[in-house]
Amino acid sequence: MFEKLNQINWPAVLVAGFAMFMIGGVWYGAVFAKLWQRLHGFTDEQVKAMQKARPPQVFFSIMLGAYIVGALAMSFLVVNLDIRTAFSGAILGAFLWLFATTAIGLTDHITRTRPFAAYILDSVYQLVAFMAAGAILAAWR
Q1: For residue 5, is it within any domain?
Q2: Per-residue pLDDT tens digits for 99-139
Q3: d(C-alpha 99, C-alpha 105), whole Å
Q4: Which helix (H) or strand (E) holds 94?
Q5: Which residue segment(s) compose the domain that 75 sits in?
Q6: CA 57 to chain centre
Q7: Around Cβ 86, how many Cβ atoms within 10 Å?
Q8: pLDDT for 19-39, tens place per residue?
Q9: 3-state DSSP call for residue 53?
Q10: Handedness of CA 92, 26, 105, 10 (dihedral sign)
Q11: Given this model, what pLDDT does residue 39 score?
Q12: 134, containing H or E segment
């Protein structure tokens, strides 16, 4: 299984990770910022305090790094499953989303008092991001 590591397309990993990051930027910044804030129960003051606790350069660097690591893991699956089309990569992304969001995210959600709509908002973003990364990684082999 590890003998195929040399088949990983590193530029595709970086682009897929960056794509996930940018989709999140649009999703949570331009489109759903206020809805996310309201659904998670944060006041403007709390958001400012969070931003002060983690300056943007730290917050975004860690986030981008995490997405690149995720894209690397997905690339490992793409190579080992010999997935070669954008559609098949997107399907892989959807299956990974089922595990990461449904199994892990939902168990996290039920331990909190946020409305279910907050889970849906975050979950749909993750589905879009996972499918985009899978499509990029599989198509760019």
Answers
A1: no
A2: 888 889 899 999 999 999 999 999 999 999 999 999 999 99
A3: 9
A4: helix 86-97
A5: 20-139
A6: 19
A7: 17
A8: 999 999 999 998 999 999 999
A9: helix
A10: positive
A11: 96
A12: helix 116-139
Instruction: Find out whether 112 and 75 touch, Cβ atoms under 8 Å.
Output: no
State the total domains in the chain. 1
Nearest to 93 by CA among 23, 30, 31, 25: 23
- Read off the tokens for 86: 């954008």
How many whole angstroms separate alpha carbon 10 and alpha carbon 59?
24
Give the CA distances from residue 115 to residues 32, 40, 53, 73, in Å, rounded to whole numbers and listed in that order.
Answer: 15, 8, 25, 31
| Threshold 0.85, pTM exceeds | yes
13 in a domain, yes or no?
no
CA distance 141 to 128: 21
Q: How many residues does the chain have?
A: 141
Distance of CA 78 to the CA centre of its chain: 17
Residue 14 in domain: no
- At 56-99, the pLDDT tens digits run 999 999 999 999 999 999 999 999 999 999 999 999 999 999 98
Say if 11 falls within a structural domain.
no
